[in-house]
Amino acid sequence: MAVLIRNGEIINADSRFHADILVEGEIISRIGKDIEAPAGATVIDAKGKYVFPGFIDPHVHIHLPFMGTLTKDTYETASIAALAGGTTTLIEMICPSRADDPWASYELWRSKAEGKSACDFTFHMGVTRFDGKTADQLKKIVSVGVASFKVFLAYKGAFGVTDEELYQTLKLGRQLGVITTAHCENPELVAVLQQELVASGKTGPEFHHESRPPLVEAEGVHHLMTFAEMTGAHVYVVHLSCEEALREATRARERGVKAWVETLIQYLVTDKTFAERPNFEGAKFVMSPPLRDKKNQPILWNGLQQGFIHTLATDHAPFDFKGQKEMGRSDFTKIPNGIPSLEDRVTLLYTHGVKTGKLDLQRFVEVASTGAARLFGLHPRKGTIGVGADADLVVWHPDAPGMISAKTHHMNIDYSAFEGWKTIGKPEVVTVRGEVAFQSGQFLGKVGRGKFLAREATHGE
Length: 461
Ligand code: URP
Ligand code: ZN
Ligand code: ZN
Prior knowledge:
The chain has helices at residues 75-84, 102-113, 134-143, 163-176, 187-199, 208-211, 214-231, 243-254, 265-269, 297-306, 345-354, 361-375; strands at 3-11, 16-24, 27-32, 42-45, 50-53, 55-60, 65-66, 69-70, 87-94, 120-126, 148-152, 179-183, 235-237, 259-264, 311-313, 393-403, 422-432, 435-439, 442-443.
């Protein structure tokens, strides 16, 4: 059935105009003035509203065995939460343990999503070991459309790779034309700082930041950039949190390293004092790299607006407060890391970025959708409103008030990091490939309709 969205203001990263959008089947078939509705079409009046391309979260964890526990969301709960917030495409990290087989891990992660998601999805392939068999397995995984890698410089003894493995992964990425995404923190420094803090009785969540200070992250970024420069690989720093780390990435880009930067909504709107809240409340705000001193926030906002930072993600890693975060009551190093935000990313970015004048509307679309689509081989199918693109559309009320609460959110998690926060602007209608999936706060989509998006390698010479 056709859908006609009338009278909206279309906001793309590179254009802005008033027009109607006709959707036939799964794609946008026409954009223009005064388009007549075909017989039987669903007509949506978007007068006074923005129409955005569906938003893309380029860094989420839905299935994640981590720190002795397992994330709470399933693809059903996560995709419905994503759609409630205007996100129509998820890029999940496949995170095998070092002992796991890469191809079997790809199949496992894919099985968690296939037939269970209400929105489209794809993956970055985590490389947590590199031995004699790895290259062939990774080539096979890239050939089925998982055309990006993920490495962890942190999490020594869990997901972390050695320098030799990092070198081999980047060399292979360069050869295959795929980008390697990386969690950048110096693992040795984290380990020694954690030991020192715990040994001196500093065991609460407020000490998590001290165990991973900005220089630990900056060293990780510098390390990655050195290896990227030596191999010619294209790299993407995930969840960059502070000025020191951004300086390293920017310096590398200035000398020609092919590097891109992601930050998270959490770093823009919350700071390290949240993790210092008494009575173990701070555990809700433990993630890595940690929430930083507030003075970093204007630098990150400026980075997004000026193009030093290219994408905005959530690193959604949903662990309950009860029973999961509580595992670290007597030792902050055992608090499962993550601040779930999948549902709230776009609304918070709009409220605290666009509405305060820190981010213009087109940069908002760039960092929350188009930038990730381009970097990860989804553009122009995703990330833009154009004839022939998938009809993933968000009709956005620019001034509607809202309030975030665990009582009303769709994520399968027992708390909200933003409990009681007021928001401005919200998605009124969200479509997934031409079908209305969310309208006026109601999920109208279909669990299982979300498709795996096979991607080409787009980082070749
Ligand atoms: O604290 C975080 N970031 N948790 C998720 C795992 C990761 O490092 O991406
Ligand atoms: Zn990470
Ligand atoms: Zn992550």
